[in-house]
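yo

u said u wanted the structure for the complex thing, so here. seqs first:
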Amino acid sequence: MEHPDVIFAIGTNMTECHPVAATRLKKAITRGAKMIVVDPRETRLAKMAHLHLRIRVGSDVALLLAMANVISREGLLDDSFIKERTSGSSDFIKHVEEFTPDWAANICEIDAKLIEEAAIIYGKGDPAAIYYTLGITEHICGVDNVQSLCNLALMTGNLGVTGGGINPMRGQNNIQGAGDCGAVPSNFPGFQPCSDPDFAEKFSKAYGRSIDPQKGITKVAALNQSGQEGPDGIHAMLIDGENTVVTDPDKKHCEKALGSLQHLVVIDLFMTETAQLADIVFPATGFAETDGVQTNTERRVQRLRAAVPPPGEAKPDWWIISEISKRMGNKQFEHFHSAKDVFNELCSLSPIYNGLDWDRIENSEYQWPVPEKDHPGTPRLHEKEFKNGKGLFTIIGYRDPAEVIDEDYPVWLTTGRRLQAYHSRTQTGRSAGIDYLLNEETLEVNPKDAIEWQLKDGDFVEMSSRRGSITIKVRVTDKSPQGTVFTSFSFASVPVNILTGSGYDPVTDTAELKVCPVRIELVN
Amino acid sequence: MISPKEVPPNSRVLTMSIDDEPVDFRDGETIYDIANRCRREVPSLCYDPRLEPFGACRLCVVDVEGIKNPVASCTTKATDGMVVRTKTKTIEKYRKTLLEMVASENRNLDINQLSGYSSQELSELLDQYSTDNKRFIGKTSGKSNKDDKNPFILRDYDNCISCYRCVRVCAEQEGDHAINIINRGFQTQISTEFGNDLRDSECTFCGQCVQTCPTGALSDKKALRAKESPGEIKKTRSVCPYCGVGCAVDILTKETKVVGIQPAMDGPANEGALCIKGQYAFDFVSHPDRLKKPMIRQDDGSFRESEWEEALQLAANGFQEVADDYGRHSVYGIASGRAPHEAAYTMQKFIRSNFGTNYIDNCSRS
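structre next:
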C-alpha cells in the first residue's frame, strides 16, 4: 500500500473504518504519491487528497464511464496490456465515447473539469491503485460499480503489479474468511462453484450425502421468504454472531422475518437484539478466548490464540454447531475435537488452502492461494495471467438509485461508520472510555441546508423515508455536502436501518444502504 | 518508490570493519543499522526502527577511526573502508555519563510494564550500566499533564526525556501531527496545538505514542487499571477482532483477565500500529453482559438458563422437525464475518451435510 504513484480511493472512509491501512496511504502520500478521493462527504481521507470529487450519492458509474472516456481520448491506454491480457476492449472503448465529462458532470453534480483531471491523474499513474469499500458495493448497482473500476484498471494495465490493482477493504475481521470457508450460497469452500456438478459431487462424497448441484439463495432472499407458505418458505435458521436486525436494512421487515420462523437458534457473545428473537441462544467464546484462524483483506491467513478462559460455560462456535449436528444423527462432525481438526479439514478440501495446515500458519506469513506444501503463498494475484484467462471489459450503463429524491423525500441520506464505534456497538459500546469520545449519534447537516431548513446544532429532527421514521439530533458540519445528510447505524437509539432498504443489487442481493431519500422535519 | 528505511537493493555492496571484523553493507545504511544486524548491542533511547533516525539521545555513540569525537551511529551513514569500534572503554564511559544525564530528567524509574510496549527501555539500560538518576541533580524539563481527562493516554511529562519518539511516530507513522514540541532547553514540552487536551486535537487515540515511549511518560491508562491486580503479565499473540486489516496484537493478561492490548511490532499488516478500537476497545471480553449459559425461550416469551445437553437436543430437534415438515430447503444458515474460519466452515458444513442444500450465507451483504 505504500508503493502506488497514484491512489484512487472511492467510497472508502478509510481513516475511520480501516485506520491502520490508512496510515500506509498517508505514508505513500508523504513520499509523493497523489491521491484522488471520491466521496460526497469531506472525510479525513478527503482532506488529505490532491483532488476530492464530491459526487452525488449513487452516481459512481457515471463518473467512472466519463473517466474511461477521457483516458481513451487522451491516449492513456496501456495498449500492450490490453492486447495481451484482455478481451472486449474495442467494444468498450466505443461504448464510452458518448459518455463525456459534461454528461457525467450533470449526473454527479460536480464540475466536468474535475472529472477530466481525475481521469488524467489516474491514467498517468504508474502504478495507480484503486481502493474501495462499501461506498461502492452497497448500491443497487454495486456490481456495475466494481466492474467499472475493473474497466479502468484493465484499460490502464494496473493489475498484477505492486502498488496497483483493485483493492477492496473488507469491513470485518474475518469476512474474507467466511467466503474462503464456503459460507456463501454460490461456492463450496475455496470458491469452488456449487453449480459445477464436479464440485457438488466432490462435496457430496466428502460429506457423505448428496448436495444440490446448484446455488442456494442469499440471506436477503431467505429473510424475504421467512415464514412464507409454499415450497419456498424458510422456517428455521441458525445464525452465528450476526446482529441481523440492527445491521441489516429495513429493520421492521427483518424483525418480522425472524419472528415468523418456527425455529431460530442464535450463537453469540451477548443477548443482542437478534438473539432476543431466538428460541435458543448459545453462548460463544470470543476474541482472546478462541483458538482459530482468520483471513485479512490481503488474504493473509493468520492464527488467533486463546489467552483467557471464556466466561461461564461459553464454547467455541465450531463446537456448538458440531454438537447440534451430532444430535441430528450426523456422523460428519465426530472427528472435530479441536479447532485444528476443523481447519485441517478445510485445507484438505480447498485448493487455495491445500498447501496449508494448522502448524504451517503458526507465523501468519502466508497469503492464499497456497496450492501445495512448498508453495510460498501469493502476495499478488493476477501477476502473469488472470485465473479465468483474459480480463473482460464489461459494457455498463448508468442507472439511477432505486429511489431518487422527490417532493416528499427531498434529501439524500447516506449511512456509514465512525472511528470509535464498531457496527452495532455490542463490543465497542461495552468498552470503557469509548463514550468519552463518542456517546451519541448525530445527523450531519451542511450549514447552508441548516439555514434553509431552519435547523441549528443540537435540534432534534424527525427523519422519514418510505419505510419509517426516526428521531435524531442535528450536527451542523461542512462534512456533508448540500442536499445530503449522513449518520451511522451504530447506535440502537438511532436505528437508521428502519429507513434504509430501498433496493438490492440484482446480482449480489447487496442492499442499497448508501442511498435513501428522506424528509427532515424539526421536532418541537 | 522505496520507503526511507529501505536500502535500494541494487545499491553498491561495500565493506567496513566493526570491532575488528570485516562486514559487508549496502551504500546508504547507517552504522547503527549495520551494527545491529551484526548483533552488536548498541544502546539507544531515541531510536525506533520504523522512524527516521533522529540523534537525540546520543547513547548510540561509537568510535570511528580518524574522527576525534565519538559519532552518533544512528544518524551516520557508513562509508567504504570505515573502521568502527562499538564497545571501547571510553565509549562505554561516555554512554554511562550520557545515560545518567538523560535519566536525571526523570523522577520515577520504576515504571509498570503495563504502561506500554517500550516503557522499560530506560530502566533496563540503567540496570545494564548499573546506575540510576541520582548523579546529576538539578533542573528538569517537562511538565506533567496528568489532568488531561482522556481515559486512554496518561501524559506524565515529568518522565519525559525529550527523545520525541511520540511526536515522530504521530507524524511519520500515523500521519496525524497531533502533538509537537514547544519551547527549548529545560522549557521543552510536548504539547498539542494550543495546549488543548488530546480530545480537542487531531489525536485519534491510536496509542502509537504510548507504545513507543521508552520511559512511561506516556502510559496506557486502561492497562494500568490492572497494575495492582495479582498475577504475572502474560502476552499472547493474536489478531485484532475488528476490521479486515488484520493487525497482529499481543493480548496482555493477568491470571484469567485481559488487562491490555499491545500492537505486534512485527505484525505483517500493521507493523506496530493499531487504532483506537484495536488498542482500547477490549472490555467487552469480560463484560458482565456476556452470555454464560445456553438460554431457552419459555412460553411467556422470557428466557431461562439451561444445561448444554437440553439446549443442544432442543436445537437439533427443532431443525429436524422443520426439515421433516417443510422439506430440507426450509432451513437456512447465516455465518459470522467476525468468528474464525472454524465457525464459518462448520456453519456451511452444518447446512450442506445435514440438508444437502447451499442455503448458507454470511453478513457480507449488509
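Chain A has four domains: 6-169, 172-215+291-308+318-371, 217-283, 411-522. Chain A is about 30% helix and 15% strand.
cya
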